[in-house]
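Note to self: the last two entries modelled the partners one at a time, which told us nothing about the interface. This time every component goes in together.
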Amino acid sequence: MTSIDTEFQRESIAAPPLRWRELWLKEDWWAIWLGLGIVVVAYVFFANGVSIRWLAVTPAKWSTLPQLGAHFVANYVRYIAQFVAWLAVFSIALTVLGHKAREFIPSFVVLYVLSVIIFALGQWDKANTYNLEPPLVALVLGLLLSNVVGLPRWLDSGFRVEFYIKTGIVLLGATLPFTLIIWAGPVAILQASIVSIVTFLVIYWVGLKLGLDRRLAATLGAGGAVCGVSAAIAISGALGGKKEDAPIAITVVIIWAIAMIFVLPFVAQYLHLPAGVGGAWIGTSEFADAAGFAAAQTYGNMASHGAVAGTSDQAVFAYTLIKVVGRDVWIGIWAFVLAIVATTQWQRTEAGRKPQAAEIWWRFPKFVIGFLVASLIITLVTTGYSLADFNKSVVPTLVAPIKDLRTWAFIFCFLSIGLTTRVRELAGAGKKPFLAFSAGAIVNVIIGFVLSAIVFAAHWENLVR
Amino acid sequence: MGDETPQAQGQCWECRHFRNGAKYLETVFKGLTSLSSGYGSIRSDDGICVRHDQYLSARSSCADFSLCGRRTSLRASKSRVFCRDAHRAIERERRC
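The predicted structure of the combined assembly is written out below.
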């Protein structure tokens, strides 16, 4: 019995398999309900000749503070309404998931106010001159607040990185044509599979050479090859790894992922990579979804400012196809295959089980279903429009407001990454795990670059063109 | 592990040594919430065995299985009775 055990009621530390209750007790499903709910409401408004644009308010471009002030004076009711809407839906979801509303509400107030400031800063006409990209500003501000100023632990209730990014990804689905997923998906899967398998093998092999336990090496390998921290804990659980394995993987993934957020967009810009190519490279080089979106969004913003060729959408769409469609969805298969290898080839552990094919579904990142359904819905309901009509009536009243709400969800996420990353609290990873992971990360970046910028360059450069 | 693992009376989720609550895991695994979550589907129902210091599936089993609370069917175990009894067992263990 640990001291942490005594802080929790039994029902909060042990629970039977969720099965159908996952529909309301896992945040993936809540991201689907919220994301698809917004999409459906947006469509109902659109079908009746109105729009949710009023609620999807965002700061306008500005060059002087009086201009910015005038914008907020003119639109403060819309911001309050939007805040209340976000607060209501997130409160319901997080309360059902087991969080305390009395902790979430003040926390979300802080998050929303900071998000408005960051969003507004990003709309400054000189923001690009000083590289004040909202994802990077959000991350730096969050890191400073959590590591220098210090924040009470209970505030973390509102800083739900994964929940916000999953909700944002479902909303992103509504802005990404389903036909594009079908057209570009196979290349994304091929490229991501090559990178994932090579990266995993490098980390695993180097890890074994350095004397790491097989399960730890595989946990680190999955963290680098598939989807960062989430993949690491999924594989550690599937293999029955030591309790210490997951925190080690968490530490090395966080260090690398956050460093890459700041490095990749600027290196891609330095190399003059078009937006789609840069997005694909980030998709193959970043580990965690949230961190990768911060980097891809930053690169997309550079494209919208004219600093790189292409459009913001190209960077974000290419990243999403590689990361979500090409890598995330395969985690269940990785877990199943590695569990078979572990049970048949590796030294047995005290506790274990037979691998089950059902694990592929149990561990499937369900929010991807919402992403695909959202894409399908918008694609189907806009099928009859000509391109001119689509751009004239559908984009401003249906797609753009959803995109604006997606941007809000992403800013909540980017800020939460910084606010929840307390460097001093991370577990000591040790030199060997860090070296093994670093070897894979470097190979990952190189192969990702070759595939994105050379082998499939034309494919990614012309995405949604 | 696997075929060779002794299939004891029950699975880990019924065992007093097992901890798989999302909030609990987010507390134990420092940094988990920075780029992931204890509430994600990808984690399935995995948790920590405090007896063997392993992180493993709730459907695992071992020879050291110790029933948490009274023996119940899966359906009945979904009730709070399971958790209440389990909590009492932990309290007894702590007092010992």
